Amino acid sequence: MKINTTVMDVQIEKMELIELIINTKNDSILKKLRSVLEKDNQLTLTEQEYEIIDQRRSNHLSGKSKSYSWEQVKANIKAAK
Questions:
Q1: Separation in Å, CA 40 to CA 11, 25, 34, 48, 67
Q2: CB-side exposure of 77: number of CA atoms within 13 Å?
Q3: Residue 59: other Cβ atoms inside 10 A
Q4: What span, in angstroms and rounded, lies between the C-alpha atoms of 28 and 34?
Q5: For 12, which of 18, 29, 65, 79 is 20 to 30 Å away at the CA?
Q6: What is the mean pLDDT of the chain?
Q7: Within 13 Å of residue 60, how many CA atoms lie on the same side as its CB?
Q8: Rounded to an integer, what distance in angstroms lies between the CA atom of residue 59 and that of residue 62?
Q9: Better-scored residue on pLDDT, 32 or 2
Q10: How far does CA 30 lie from the centroid of its chain?
């Protein structure tokens, strides 16, 4: 089995960062790190993207667009292979 070195490198980096965080005594560093990580995890959409989502939702609720159950999606994927 071949191990993806990039994934391993990322995991090693994460472990090293965790160790640094555990060992820091500086509260301001922890606050800055929290701020950076929280901003990184926030999903931001443009006004145009919200409009597209609203239009698609409206089409779905009014029956103008086709929708599929999760089971149908999986079956379609298997059939496409």
A1: 18, 24, 10, 21, 32
A2: 7
A3: 13
A4: 10
A5: 29
A6: 88
A7: 9
A8: 5
A9: 32
A10: 23
Phi-psi bin for 28: left (phi > 0), alpha (psi -120 to 50), beta? Answer: alpha
For the chain, count helices (H), then strands (E). Answer: 4, 0
Which among 4, 6, 30, 77 is positioned nearest to 68, based on CA atoms? 77
pLDDT, tens digit, for every residue of 26-39?
999 999 999 998 88
**pLDDT bucket at 4, cuts 50 / 70 / 90:** low
Show the tokens assigned to 47.
């006004």
* pLDDT band of 56, cuts 50, 70, 90: very high
| pTM score, whole prediction | 0.43
> Please, are residues 60 and 67 in contact by the beta-carbon 8 Å criterion?
yes
